[in-house]
Amino acid sequence: MVNMGAFRDAVSGWAAGGPGGAASDLAVRLGLRTAVLLEGLSDLAAFEALAARRGPDLAAEGVCVVPMGGAMSVGRYASLLGPPGLGLRLRGLCDEGEQRFYDRGWEWAGAGHRGFFVCVADLEDELIRALGTARVEEIIQAEGDLRAWQTFLRQPAHHGRPRQQQLRRFLGTKKGRKIRYGRLLVEALDHEQVPAPIDDLFASL
Asked: What's the number of CA atoms in the CB half-sphere (13 Å) around residue 62?
């Protein structure tokens, strides 16, 4: 059975310089109409967790979600999946500091009006702000990471920083932690707490 993972793998190989035939064939078989371009796997984990809560099934709606391994790849992916390539409608989510790459990528792909949404700092920062630092620390404790968090706070480099900044930095200090907490923080949100950039992205699909 064809699945979205196979399409993502085909697109990744295509973006790396391989042939695009497999991606094109899978796009037709999956009935794709929209591609959501995300910077990386932690964004994907958060996006998929929210999609599972909100419904409907994005794949059934012809929406594919593609992590690119960094914002600097957006021009390549937008050209392959957007009007010059597969002709899919483009949507995206990016960090504030990476917006210039998305601006150029959309322009190169001739994607028309801007269809991506910008997080202040990054998605983790949006989620921490939405939940509040106390709630995020509760999640850290529940996940068994309290000792690591306390050790992190004792490091001189982090003294005196706002708690939100400390939490954001902590989530990025260990491989895989941002991915795991991207999902956990989204699952902890109430409906009205969903940050505006990701809420607006879903509304645009």
From this structure: 12
Judging by DSSP bridges, how do beta strands 116-119 and 34-38 pair with one another? unpaired
Count the Cβ atoms, other than its own, within 10 Å of residue 181: 26
Co-location of 35 and 129 in the same domain: no
Residues 137, 128, 153, 41, CA torsion sign? positive
Instruction: Find, among 35, 57, 5, 40, the residue nearest to 124 by Cα.
Output: 40
Q: Within this chain, do residues 86 and 17 fall inside the same structural domain, yes or no?
A: yes
Let me know whether 97 and 130 are in one domain.
Answer: no
pTM over the 0.85 mark: yes
Dist CA 182 CA 169 (whole Å): 13
- The pLDDT tens digits of the residues spanning 34-88 come to 999 999 999 999 999 999 888 778 888 999 999 999 999 999 999 999 999 999 9
Q: Are residues 110 and 139 part of one domain?
A: no
**What is the domain range of residue 59?**
4-119+194-203
